[in-house]
Structures are given as C-alpha cells and as structure tokens.
Amino acid sequence: MHNNCFPIQKQKQKQNHSQSQNSQSHNRKKWCTFTYIGKETSFITKIFKHANLQIAYRTNNTLRKHLSYSTTQQDKFTKSGIYKLTCTDCNKAYIGQTGRNFYTRYNEHKRAFRYNTLQSKFAIHLTEQGQTFGNIENTMEVLQFHKKGTHLNTIERFYIHKESMNNNHLNEEYTETTNQIFNTILERLQ
Q1: Cβ neighbours of residue 29 closer than 8 Å, sequence gap 6 or more
Q2: Taking 70 as the threshold, does the pLDDT of residue 164 lie above it?
Q3: CATH class of 79-189
C-alpha cells in the first residue's frame, strides 16, 4: 500500500507492559548463594539444583577483608591464649595459658601476689625474691592467641620448652628436656 508515494507499514502491536514482565520473569533463572565451607556445602547445593535453581558460592575469606584496616583497634589483652610473665628485676619467666581473657589471668596472678597465696608460681617467685609486681604492659607478653581447647596445652608445652632452652623459666613441672618435635620446630624457626 502506498499513500502519497510513501510506503505504509503495518503498525506493530504494542505489548502490554505487564505481559512483557511476565515473559521476562518466566525466562529469568533464580539464583541462590551459599558460603562455601567444604563437602557439606556441595551436598546441600545438590538438593537445590534439582529445584531448578542456579547456585553461586561465596567466601568470607576475601582479599578486601585482609587488606582493609580496622579503625577499631582491639586490645590484645581482651583475647585468650598463651602468655609469658617476666620478672622485671631478674628476667625469669613463667609461661601460662588461659581460655579467658589475659586481663583476668593477670589479675589472678596479681591477687595471689598481694595475698601471698600459693596459687601462682610467678607470685611465689616475686614474694621469695622480694620483688614487685609490674603493670600488665611491662609484665605480660602475649605469645599466641588461641581459644580454649586441647591444642592450648600443646602450644603451652611448646613455649615452655622454648623458654627452658634458656634455663630462665619458672615452670617447675616441666622436666622434659628433649622433645624432638619441638626441637625441630625451633630449628626451622631460627
């Protein structure tokens, strides 16, 4: 058909906006994300794949998390793990562990010193030598952060063994002088 020498095209039928959304949503795939933690995640996601869902994995261990600087500096004495108490006068050291925070354990040693009880070998040493109990920053050193558990005993024994190499420790119950595993670790660390 021509009208004034111009071709007339048939007009396309306008699609209803709601009809186009329905057709797009019908073709759109649904996605689920899972934090990958190991075999368990794979097992669970197989169940969802049968439900016609697309699976994506994510991790909490991201580069951004490692590179970002936290403006809230957490005090190291609010954590738990292995600590070293050093006598400020003679440099003898006591290695200990705590599943609670380091402040609590430090205060227990200080209380044992103040009331002259036999609950702390470090406090007994200070009392016998007539020395003073220093503040937490000068007396306590955090050797390793760790949560309470069976590994804590092994880590404590390692640091006691390391300190016993200097014959400068107050941990009397430690009598084992040779531990080949600890010696090998210490050689590799040097």
Answers
A1: 52, 53, 54
A2: yes
A3: alpha beta
